[in-house]
């Protein structure tokens, strides 16, 4: 009789554990999946930097895989990481939105983190880096420094909020500015991006914003050769030439990942969509070129301060 009661009690304990929210409060191991490489010096490198920061802060083992793009590769990586005991998994890009949301319920002891995508499951967290404001101030800088009254944008996709912000900011600074916008329809097609840059240059633009993390470095290198100006993207790209890169629209996704890890480790992380901006120091402007006058730099700093206080970008009265 006693043995039977013990067996029933054990079964009830097992059943009571099913369907519960997984415990958040201790990072065991951390994994990160990259659709491309960690050596691009832009988006991939930023994500890898975030992974190393988490490793240092929590003294845990970390793992990463590059070139994980197909559904099959993503599923295999998730299963492999689950077997390794990883309980905090980052998918460094919107490419992981569908699969993470689809399979997350099969791995209730793992927290899945995606970027710039939508969370649709209980144990999926999405990191959103607000791009409109950084684009706005980048556009202001481009319009302020243009001598031909023509600037250009080489964007990846039409939905990019930083591109919309760039155009609005340029028009705010100079209503008469001409903005030539072209799209690659890909994040890292550097061949197409450089060809589009050549067209924009021929059409008169002297400041160009290459808003794609996989091709902005090759484009900036060509801009430097031509003696024109660029607005950097994702990272502070002043190291590409302080007389070429006027400033950069910086997204510190590594800091955002650190915030998510900290909340997870404290047991306070709420699954769902998390938004980061200038207030969090996740989004910021990069180093200004010495060519940009101090008065204008002070103007930008004041506008950013007001934006942080009001959540509203400036408008012409």
What does this structure look like?
With 317 residues, the protein is of the alpha/beta class. It has 2 domains: 23-129 and 254-280, Response regulator (Rossmann fold); 132-250 and 287-310, Response regulator (Rossmann fold), CATH 3.40.50. The chain has 10 helices and 12 strands. α5 (132-145) runs parallel beside α6 (161-173). The strands form 2 sheets. The protein has a 6-stranded parallel sheet with strand order 2-1-3-4-5-11, sandwiched between helices. The chain has a 6-stranded mixed sheet with strand order 7-6-8-9-10-12, sandwiched between helices. α8 (216-226) links the parallel β8 and β9. InterPro entries: BMP_lipoprotein, Peripla_BP_I, PnrA-like. It holds the Pfam family Bmp.
Total domains, how many?
2
Proportion of residues in extended strands = 15-25%
Physical arrangement of strands within the biggest beta sheet: 2-1-3-4-5-11
The CATH topology of the largest domain is what?
Rossmann fold
Shape: globular
Query: Which structural class do you get from the secondary structure elements?
Result: alpha/beta
E-strand count = 12
Protein name: Transcriptional activator protein Med
Pfam families: Bmp
Main location: membrane
Keywords: Cell membrane, Lipoprotein, Membrane, Signal
